[in-house]
Structure formats: C-alpha cells, structure tokens
Amino acid sequence: MSADKVRSTKLKFKGEKTKKKRKREAADDAGPSRSKRKEDDLDPETWVLPENPMEIRGPTFIFHPSDPSPISLNFNSTTNRAVLHALDKDKSEDDEEITLLDRTPTDVAQVWVTTRVAGSPTINLRSGTGEGKFLSCDAHGIVSADRDARGPQEEWTPVILPDGMVALMNIYEKYLSVDEVAGGSLQLRGDSENVGFGERFWVKVQNKYKKEAHEEEKKKNLKEGDSLDSKIDEAGTNRVYQAWGAGRSLVSAEDKKDLKRARKEGRLQEALLDRRAKLKSDRFC
Hints:
The chain is of the alpha+beta class and 285 residues long. It contains four helices and 13 strands. The protein has two domains: 33-215, Trefoil (Acidic Fibroblast Growth Factor, subunit A) (Trefoil); 251-285.
C-alpha cells in the first residue's frame, strides 16, 4: 500500500474555491443556545433556577439570602407550621464554602411541592413531608401551613424579578416576606405591600420539571399556530366561494355579461365551470 495520503474522491470543478473547515470557537457557544444545551445535558434531578413563573412546578426549594446566614422556608411536621431555618455553611469536597446559588436542599423539610391548575398563573405550595399541608395566608398577613385543602388563601402568584429572584404575592395582593421581630428573631409575614430585600427569595426547581414546562409551551404555541392558519385559510376560502349579500354572489359587470351571453348560447354550465376555475387560479396567484 502506498504511503502517500489518500486522495479525496469528492468531485471538484475547475475554478471552484476550496472551503476551509471552520474551527469551532468559544464565541459560537455564547448566548441562550449555549445555556439551553447545558440544561439539556444536566441530570433531570439537578436543581436549577426558573426563568419564568410557569417553570415553577414540582419539588421546590425556597430560600432567602439573610445575613449573617441564609435561611430556607421549611415545614415543621410536628407543629404543622412553616418555619425559617438557618442553612448550615456546607462545604464542598475541596473544603470550600458552597456559594448561595449553588445550594440545594439537604432535608426533605426544605422541599415544597408546587402544583397549579392548568393555565393558571397562581400556584399552591404543599409540604413534602407529613400529610401534605398547604402554605396559606389570611387577610391579616398571618402565614400558616395547616390546611388540608386548597382555597383562595392557599394561592400564590410568583413574580420573577429582573435579577432572577422571586416574590410571592397572595390573594390579597400582598407579598410574603421575612420580617425581623423583637429580639432579632425572624418570622414569615404576608402583609407587605412593596417588594424589598425581605420579599425577595431564591427559588429552585428540578431540571426535568423546567423542561416539562418548555415542552408544554411548545405544544401550546403549535396548537395556537395551527388554529390561526386554519382561521386564515377559512377566511380566504370564504372570500372566494361564499355567497355574500343575502345569498347573492357579487360578480363584476364583465362576468355578468359573459354569463348572460353564455345563457343565450346554451352553454351556461360550461361558463360557470370556467369562472370557478378562473377564481381558483386568481386565488393562488
């Protein structure tokens, strides 16, 4: 066998410029598409930040960047209460402190299950432990987690803020907040009218549920697109074939003359067929 390099068998024409193979650069991976590919490669159980309210579903981790220690929204199954729990300063394998946004739940008490009625902007937060109690807020701003069934007071509207954090608005259009009381302790309230530091939470969901939301949105857009095409086609067809003016077809003076002349010559049917063919031709031109 010859030691020479094997020549390509691809046909080339005289004068044709040889295209150089384009090297993949880091810039090609920039932008939303890169982010989307990364999410597709993630494990379904990976905890990620939602980008829009519809992605908040399934197991949900809610925490607040309090100082000196961040806190998570927990459910105490013994007292049936929603409580604020200080997050331990976890360490990575390299003995480095885990950053705030890299935190994930380490206890089932930190996980809430988010559900919603299909198409509704509001969500329900049910505890992941015990008998499954719903997070609720009354007209006085008192937050509790002892309801077995969902109602208006168990509805929350998530609002995604520009920095990616989330505010949770109740049925009374007030926000869930972390409030400091006498003695320096923290408690949950639901009567805040403005979104400040105390009303901003980080929310994480599992990647598979975020992807599920994307798929539902694609199907919804596809159905809406098909419906719109159908309406446009139907409208176009009606303009060509439907009789207007109380059942009378509106035709031009020239068409009327042709039909009258054809009637006299005994070829009305042929003229009607010719006119229909002409209308179809005009429609697709």
